[in-house]
Amino acid sequence: MTIQAFLNTQIVVVIQALTGGIRVVGNAGMFSLGGGGTVIRILSFGRGITIVIGAVVPGSSSAFPVMPTSTGGGRLSFQAVATGAWVDPPTSEGYRYVMANNSLFTKIVNFPTGFAQPFTVSVGGKVVGQFKPGDSVDFSKFPGSGVKEFTVTGITPLTDPDDPTAFPLQLAFNTEKADFTMEAIQNTAAVEYYKNNPPPLEPFKITIVTPEGKVELEPESTAEALTEQTAFLTSAQSGLSESQVEKLSAAVESVKRDLNSMSSNFEGLFPENAGLNINRLNPTMNSASSLRKSLAILLGELKALPKNRSTEQGVAIANMLQEIDKMTVLLEATAPVLKEVSQAVAVAK
Question: Are 34 and 55 in contact (CB under 8 A)?
Fold first, then answer.
């Protein structure tokens, strides 16, 4: 088991399968599980946990970018980044990218999605142009066939500085690997505002990344969606019997309760700046097992609903099935993670 070059300001646990030990590594934001089969990587930051399953290499996509190896004073350092990789720091309204070795930036291959305005790219204080997702910037046409530094500004809206996947940028160099730094260009007005007006706590989110794509689950939002669809399906106009209403409502409440328990335990298993909390391991595994059972019961109740339903009822059921599918993916992703951690803990003891 190896520690990946994927770092942020978090402290997490590295399970050492070869030695049977568990140790905390300062400033390590990711660790891997699994030796011979499927590799599972975990990135923990703020109130979010990312689980990466299979052959997804850091930097291979905007969903799983390369992270800085060190931070400090608004400067973020990247080392031995492969050309063509997506890189990403905690973000501000702009960044100055400066090469730290003899390599040159030859291209911005792609920009991130989800922003309202084009990004402004400048070299040597002169604006090269404005660009959007899908665009690229070719620095190889500059004197010397590349540039040592450039800036990207105009990041709108401003992004969460604690989210390490908020502003990934895909870069190319004139060498296979390169070392460089990123210096934040702060929006001073926004910094001052948030000192006095801290934003509300973000909901806990679990992101699952596989070679096929990415699934995001916010337990709070999922519970709200289930409540909304259930209220529609069990309304007086639904045509359901009292028994059907009671069974469906009870099944949904069980799922919501088990989902809340599992997400709370899972978040507590990887607490911010505290490594692995093994006291939350068994509760997490138990709540995951309960959620799997309650989902099966809910699916049974949905299948038992009358077939002569309205179009609106069909949409409500489809929406519930979509949420169930997300939770099923979550369970499939976390099961091997919990198993690996459990085995490592047992060996360590």
Answer: no
